Amino acid sequence: MNRRKATPASIIKAAALLRAGGIVAFPTETVYGLGADGLNPEACARIFEIKGRPRFDPLILHECSAARARKLFSRVPKPALKLMKRFWPGPLTLVLPKARAIPDIVTAGLPTVAVRVPANPHALALIKAARRPIAAPSANRFGALSPTSAAHVKNQLGGGPDLIIDGGRTRIGVESTIITFARGRPVLLRPGGLPLEEIEKIAGPAVRPGKAEGEAPPAPGCLKKHYAPLARLRIIAPGQKVKGGARAGYLAFSKRPAGRFRAVRVLSRRGDLREAAAGLFAALHKLESSGARLIYAERVPAHGLGRAIMDRLRRASAK
Ligand code: AMP
Ligand code: MG
């Protein structure tokens, strides 16, 4: 059995495993991460093997303080510094020129590196005890739904990780927002757990991928099809009439649908986007395991955390 509750003792054991080149799945406030020593290329290679992740998809390094995280970059523009001060620890990843010590396998050969400081006490204690940056993508099989509980990790990766630290459900429930900078302006590489509006208040208006201005390309590895449930997923308008039945699942934003479905999940009865994001992957896991072949997913408002939710739904629905 490689799953243990998060306790001071299990965290110490996990840190020792990481220092010895082992692989540890652990909770963050976004989703569960599959961690390895970020300065050990062989350990990082095991992450790619366990996940079945292509090597061109770079990893995010996790640190336990902004001061330590900064050292992983060779240059930090002023607005990036402001974002670190304001939002770390938190669900914000910054992509900036990398320090020399960082192995190529982490950055997929890019001159930049992605770094964040997670806001989860178990994650912070683990990184601190390991005394090195921890590379940690989501602890799922590549292309499958992200894990927001230790059971999700166990179901997908089984005995792959040397240890799974169980810290309960993750609070935010969607991956971090990824920001880089181009000519002093923030560029949104991936919407996520920190609303873009909050970032823009501190760092100014952001360039969004696909927008004419700047035409920022999406982050490498942000493939069109990703976060995919095994069933087909179709995005619909809230309350839109659809054909239900024994093979259809339904993911509602705030109101139960009329009609019969194999399984129904409501993300937030109060229509709260934070609550909806926190339960998004757990709801999709449930609908998937209900045996539904087709999942209808209602569109949510595309502001705040709704942007991240819509991004994940769009990817899950891509063929
Ligand atoms: P995750 O799979 O949630 O750990 O997120 C990793 C993602 O961060 C990758 O799939 C990329 O989209 C993005 N990323 C990591 N490093 C870089 C980088 N150097 N430049 C641009 N995007 C990056
Ligand atoms: Mg992932």
Description:
- By secondary structure, the chain is an alpha/beta fold.
- It has 2 domains: 3-203, DHBP synthase; 232-317, 3-Layer(aba) Sandwich (Rossmann fold).
- It contains 10 helices and 14 strands.
- It has helices spanning 8-19, 41-51, 66-70, 78-87, 104-107, 121-130, 150-157, 196-203, 273-289, 306-317; strands at 3-5, 24-27, 32-37, 60-62, 92-97, 112-116, 134-135, 163-166, 177-182, 185-190, 232-236, 245-252, 261-266, 294-298.
- Helix 1 crosses helix 6 (121-130).
- The chain is globular.
- The protein starts with a strand and ends with a helix.
- The mean pLDDT is 94.
- Adenosine monophosphate (AMP) binds next to strand 6 and strand 10.
CATH superfamily of the largest domain: DHBP synthase
Summed over residues and divided by their number, the pLDDT gives a mean of 94
The CATH architecture of the largest domain can be given as: Alpha-Beta Complex
Spans of at least 5 consecutive residues whose pLDDT stays below 50 are: none
Q: Beta-strand percentage?
A: 15-25%
Strand order of the largest sheet: 1-8-2-3-7-4-6-5-9-10
Structurally, the number of domains stands at: 2
CATH topology of the largest domain, by name, is DHBP synthase
Q: Tally of extended strands?
A: 14
End-to-end CA span: 36 Å
Largest sheet: 10 strands, mixed
Number of helices: 10
Helix content: 25-40%
| CATH secondary-structure class of the largest domain | Alpha Beta
- Computed over alpha carbons, the radius of gyration is 19 Å
Main structural class:
alpha/beta
Instruction: Note the run of SSEs as H and E.
Output: EHEEHEHHEHEHEHEEEHEEEHEH
